[in-house]
Predict the structure of Solute carrier family 12 member 7.
Amino acid sequence: MPTNFTVVPVEDGEVDLREEDEEAPHRSQEAFSEDGIPRESSPFISNADTEQDSYYDGKNMALFEEEMDSNPMVSSLLNKLANYTNLTQGVVEHEEAENEEGAKRKTVKNPQMGTFIGVYLPCMQNILGVILFLRLTWIVGTAGVLETFAIVFMCCSCTMLTAISMSAIATNGVVPAGGSYYMISRSLGPEFGGAVGLCFYLGTTFAGSMYILGTIEIFLTYIVPNAAIFAAEKKEDAAEAMLNNMRIYGTCCLLFMALVVFVGVKYVNKLALVFLSCVVLSILATYAGVIKTVIEPPDFPVCLLGNRSLENHDFDKCLKTEVFGNATVSTELWKLFCDSPFLNASCDEYFASNNVSEIQGIPGLLSGVISDNLWSNYGPTGMLVEKKGQPSLPAQDASRDGYLPYVFNDIATSFMLLVGIYFPSVTGIMAGSNRSGDLRDAQRSIPTGTILAIATTSFIYMSCVVLFGACIEGVVLRDKFGDSVKRNLVIGTLAWPSPWVIVIGSFFSCCGAGLQSLTGAPRLLQAIARDGIVPFLQVFGHGKANGEPTWALLLTAGICEIGILIASLDAVAPILSMFFLMCYLFVNLACAVQTLLRTPNWRPRFKFYHWTLSFLGMSLCLSLMFISSWYYALVAMLIAGCIYKYIEYRGAEKEWGDGIRGLSLNAARYALIRLEEAPPHTKNWRPQLLVLLNLDAELGVKHRRLLSFTTQLKAGKGLTIIGSVLEGTYMSKAAEAKRSEQNVKSAMLAEKTKGFCHVVASSNLRDGFSHLIQTAGLGGMKHNSVLMAWPTSWKHTQDSVSRRNFIETVRETTAAHQALLVAKNVDGFPGNQERLEGTIDVWWIVHDGGLLMLLPFLLRQHKVWRKCKMRLFTVAQLDDNSIQMKKDLQMFLYQLRLDAEVEVVEMHERDISAFTYEKTLVMEQRSQMLKQMQLSRTEREREIQSIADESRSSIKRKNRLGNELQLPLDHTRQGEAQLIHDRNTKSHATLNDKAGPVPDRVHMTWTKEKLIGERNRQREANVGVRDLFNMKPEWESLNQSNVRRMHTAVELNKAIGSKSRGAQLVLLNMPGPPKNKGGDENYMEFLEVLMEGLPRVLLVRGSGREVITIYS
């Protein structure tokens, strides 16, 4: 990046530019606090207290001076860009700046490592290792050259495709420590990142176990065989004794390596080049040995009995007998197969029937032995290693073959097993990306170095497969531990100048790789722990004062010990193959998702990638997982899935702008477009709720049980929108709206309500709720039902607004063809922790879509209502056949697959009772009272006087009333002025009403409560001399329609009370409001009488469409 900038000063007044240049660095350091927020002493903010910065006032940047708080000058930003760890945006969430101690401003040294030292050599060191030296020859002999070449090609293709995807991700910005975990978590989200990061950590840890086991195998088998603690007295016990030796020595080696890592990691890094040089020298010695076989093949004879290969470390001569002088004596080989050294001894049948022959184990490159090694030789455990084409007479009794010095398979072999054992030899491609912070130009070095390293190692592996098959005899290749060549490392027999070059080189190579694994794995775990996405791992984010991960090292050593206790390199290799393959799979997935989404931030400098290559690499990884071991693959996926779900439910919420969020957005957009094509079928209908909440003075939720009821009704399914309204303009209420939204979200979280929250600011509540009903939702994901609480304060004259808001909401939901649910006594509804037993009673009066019958079924899906039974009541009139109605209703419920008790309530025609007339009379008088509150002052006085006359009170009472009405005249005049102002500022919805609400500043002496109280007092005083006939003139003046409606409400309330008073919940058809808005007050009274005396009521008004069907 260029470091020279040309600053062009703008002439404005007499400004000393030299002084500005001298002070600029000091000011740029102090301009921003550690959290990136400009300080008050910033030169970009007008500050009269600071003389040296005052020349900015009214100068060049005055046009932007009000925005300097949030938008710093470019000169200041460029100073921060000098070190990417101090970027204002984009790194706070990626670096240690989000920790509580904040980002530490340290001057870091410019990294100087190039592609060769920083990427190529580390990748070479991590890729080449134990499998190449200890198992590749055995894989070639067992699978044959062709199948081994296919294995190597698949594995190398997998890593090459993964490297291409990794290069694209690594060059799409800065990749700090964490390597693959960082790339996956920031590309696919914290859930995938945490799951795959922990899998990669486990893979790296088990790789340490594999390297340590390889180290001990080389030590005990080829360097110091006599150092074994457990020695087998019988041949059949040798394998078990070897495993125990591996466990003892492996544990000691692990403790030593962990101590080295704990004491000084810098020594491990310094020795890395030494270990890499050992690997390079070993490979060069192998190639030199191949060239030498053309000139002079090495002498490694192999002894065959018939066509069977023999272990020749207990005898020197491949002879049954030999002649000394004129005497024929038995050899050491004879003693292994016969019961005595004498020539007339009883010998093994196969030994007696077949001759002994000797062949060269390394016939050479030009010998043509590759034709014999092309094909596979798989077999079960204990299968003897035999040379094809060699004459042999089979024996009748093969029971003692396991006790004789034959070379045989120690494990059952197959193509799938060999894939799992070989794959760890191609891992280690992340070594370069892990060091991105130390590279001079990471975005160029990582792709180049990684791909070159994979190409180089792929060439080495493929050439070794061909050369091993062309130079080494097949029986030697299939001899895993070199028993047929005097316990020499098989690849060592091919090396020049000595097999010890390979033995020593491979020993130090395995030691170095083990140390690197024990160094890298704890740091990876520490990076995951410090991200805070897995709560129980946070303890492993701490370490020593210098940052070394002490606790993570202890856990790594403990997990590594599990692999060492397995004690078999062939059993550990497939385990770590699973974890590495899963990691590579998600690297490819991350690249493919980002490419297909085409997010604006996806701008990798590495251009040679394509989403098809990523998908091919992902498919290859998945295939290799199941080819290697399907049950290990399932276990690895189960572990990753459990970690994913744990992070999803318990982990910290992180927003890293990952690709899964973008994928979800695209999927949601596609689904919304599809949903809008046609309305949902009746079978797919479910209540998509818009919950209208009221907030208190502190902006808290008034009725939290409304949220609980929503949770119980929805059980997390479908759409839920929680809406609320603040009175005022958005500019003045923006902060309160945001705080209210946070409060509602907190209440939703406490009540386990899953959905969306939306708080709007509007000039009045009526308009706000209207806007929510019209506009909530998006596309096909819109609400079809509205849930709200019953307005308990509607009777108060000063709160007539709530009555009008409620009735208008009912009308608007009907006009919008949406269902309406109104919960009365909602604060008495059960919480999510309660468990109710009893009945849910449904009173089905009219059919408006079947929502009444669907709601109890949905409620009973929740544990709160699960033990409640459903009862269905319907009303029969005089002309109805109640018995037939009950039978039909039972059949209808059976076809609907609903379990409920059915009862038909007969309501015969009765005379209208005096109680009904009284209720209607009180209701109409209350209506008159409410109307008079909205008239002018003169009309208001006349109306109050007429009400006083009708009350038949004394002349004295009327005079007192007239005196009291004169008192608030001054207040009334003020109220009229306020009323004029309020009417001028009302919205269109309020102006459509016949009269607006009474202003708060208008005070009335004669209130509705006083009127009703006076009437009740007089009625009680005259009850002895008054009869029903005296009320007839008053009753005859009543509106007969209101009388009939009140009669229905009273009779229904009696029936419901007698049947459902003990029910846990009563669901009831909600009658619609009158078409004439003049009867709104009466409508509320009807509903009040209908629900009187019932503890929990849910009024249900359907949308008119069928929501439940008998068809499948």
Notes: The first strand starts at residue 301 and ends at 305. The CA atoms of residues 85 and 95 lie 7 Å apart. The mean pLDDT is 78. The first helix runs from residue 17 to 30.
